[in-house]
Sequence to fold (239 residues):
Amino acid sequence: MLTEARKRQIENEAIRLRTEIWEEQSKYWPGRYPHPFEVLEPQIAANHLGYELHFVPDLSLPLGDARAAEETAGVLDQNSKRILVADCFGRQVRTFTAAHELGHVVLKHDDKNHLLHRDMPIAGLEQQAADPIEREANFFAGCYLIPPKFLGKVMASMFGAAPFRFDYAAANWLKPNDPGSLLYAPDGSLIRYRAIAAARSYAGRQFGGRNLADLFKVSIITMAIRLRELDLVQDAVES
Fold:
């Protein structure tokens, strides 16, 4: 498990990279201001770091056995500064895997074991890697793709407040058929966070068919975990 101190370091690295890109926005988006979501695109970050990032249909590469080749979602070649990410596993896996590979670069995971590195499909923060290096790269991906301040602004525009105060009314809006499952969710569960991450409407406001997870191109569980990490959902239900 990552220590809180290490998490802060990784979060700060993600903030630093996004800030550098924003300060050089005229280089990447000449003649216009980018939407904040555009700044989160892994290809822009790779370019900024001096790497080429290419999305390809699949990565059936000769990397050992045939099964491993079929399941490869990302390849990082630190020597040639090239990243390949497979499209075939879907948008969420593609985006998170790309940000994961950038994590290896930013966090300087450049020892002999990571100069040429292959990753299996990574759905998001829900996958708990055994290797501490992989856990760091996963955490970086979550930090980079879901910035704290920007998430707060988007959440406030959708739900009316950030942090979001979870109360009886919220439970009824989020799950009208079974509000009790949210009101009395077990301590430590992601149930409430998942409901917010997956909501496509709230209090009569429609979100254009998209939820928080869709907007940030991550899985619902990844968004739920990030909401919990950033303390953006607060309990207002009296026990």
